[in-house]
Amino acid sequence: MSTAIAAERPQATVEERFEYTLRLADTSLVAGQRLAEWLGHGPALEEDLALGNIALDLIGQARLLLALAGRIEGRGRDEDALAFWRDAGQFRNVSLAEQPNGDFGQTIVRQCLLDAWQLETYASLAGSLDAELADIAKKAAKECRYHWRYSSGWLVRLGDGTEESHRRIGAAMQDLWRFTDELLTPDGLDARMAECGIGPPPAAVRERWEQRVAGVLEEAKLPLPARPHYPWHGKRGVHTESLGHLLATMQHLPRTYPGVSW
Amino acid sequence: MLGFGMYTQALDSAGAAEPQGDVDEVARLERFQARIDRDEKIEPKDWMPADYRQALIRQIAQHAHSEVVGMLPEGNWISRAPSLRRKVVLIAKVQDEGGHGMYLYSAAETLGVSRAALIEQLLAGRAKYSSIFNYPTLTWADIGAIGWLVDGAAIMNQIPLCRCSYGPYARAMVRICKEESFHQRQGYELMLTLARGSAAQRAMAQEALNRWWWPSLMMFGPSDAHSVHTAQSMRWKIKRFSNDELRQKFIDVTVPQAQYLGLTVPDPELRWDEPAQHYRAGPIDWSEFQAVLEGGGPCNRERLAARREAHEAGRWVREAAVAYAEKHGAHAEPARSG
Ligand SMILES: [Fe+2]
Ligand SMILES: [Fe+2]
Fold first, then answer.
1. Model ipTM?
2. Quick check: is A59 in a domain?
3. Measured between alpha carbons, how far is residue B146 from residues A55, B151, B184 in Å?
4. Domain count, chain A
5. Number of the ligand closest to the Cα of B152
């Protein structure tokens, strides 16, 4: 692009950058918190370890992004202040991330749909004009590529495994598909961040996500579900009932003993 | 791979590496013992007495099960870790324990018994695991206490095993001990943070020490006078120090650490024996030890139930992985079982 156009680029406000960074941070945090619930309860030790690795990556991303959000906001809030001292209505994660683990198949479907979105989003964010965000995104994109390989690998195995696994994974896909509309439909902030050269172009993310997911569904011998418009707006702070419980568990200790260090 | 009854292989390979008949049993045993006396490592293909193999399988399996069951009490606090840094450290630790379980099951497999068979024994209630994991984790301080005391006791037990006569077990222990000492330091650092924190945090730390101290001492097993396997295991160098020796070592190292934290060891009879240069602990309540060992501990039911539930809930997943691999060939095989 020419410098003339770049110079005309609108500048995002502090509030917009803060909100947008929280969307990414909270999605990673909440998904990581969910995945870590599997440790000690997976279908095999290998899966406990793999899900634990993914949880570690996601929480690692969240820590970097929350710290960045805190710096953008400039009110002295660090990663823990943001993770433990906001209520559900202040969380900006996409609603898909907070959905309960269910059985292993439901977790795999949730991860697969989310991994594809995070992968495309971070890959694109690696070129963000926000240099700090771009650095985090480069690392995160690499991690998400591995997460996608893991979740899509299992999606295919379960889809094309036994009759039971096909039935279960198909049901999980039907159940969770309704949350994908939120991933792919930009709201005002998504559009604005793209305009400002900070966020990815939503149409491109959508196209690549659809290609990626359609490909793996075919390999898993699963039908492509119809996409209903579903009114989930986690990224604007309107969540499903699950998030409140997740946060109640996650936040209870620091809130019970405020003002101490751990 | 997912079948039962792999355990019958356990004795199949005994005697495989040495021609039969030309050496009588006594001479063979003598040669075997001489190798051990020379500190040679016994490797999977070497001849070994059936009792040696059985003793190792029992010990390694028990150790592997302990790692895997041990994921549960600490996993109990992952969702509630009070900072993101602590959460990451705890996830990584619980993961390490799962990894230890995997190396140890692999070491046991070199003796001819499959992971799947060993897990079946655990789930059927026919295998032992360390009783320490039958105690509950009631507060966040328990995560510190476990790292400090339980991993600390595990290290005391396991460092000598790095020189164990059976090669695969010794090598697994080298790797495991490195990670355990890392866990021990992290646990102690957690306790230190609490001990230097608010009054409520200090009370939490003290209360955790009160609950974990005696069970940690029991981790070394019954006193030497009542230990059944010790003498033979020492001769075979699959055990190098007696239970009481290791327990004493642990007490000597740990009491000053508790003092540094400003916490009180919950033993009114604990005293420093100046001439012997040892701390002397009061008598251990072996009836509690026995009760927990026999299934009467506070969480025996919960721990085994959680393992069974995970195994049953994961059955369709493992079956699907096998079915997929059968359809698509070994290259697509995720090789996940157990
Ligand atoms: Fe361990
Ligand atoms: Fe450990």
1. 0.96
2. yes
3. 22, 6, 8
4. 1
5. 2
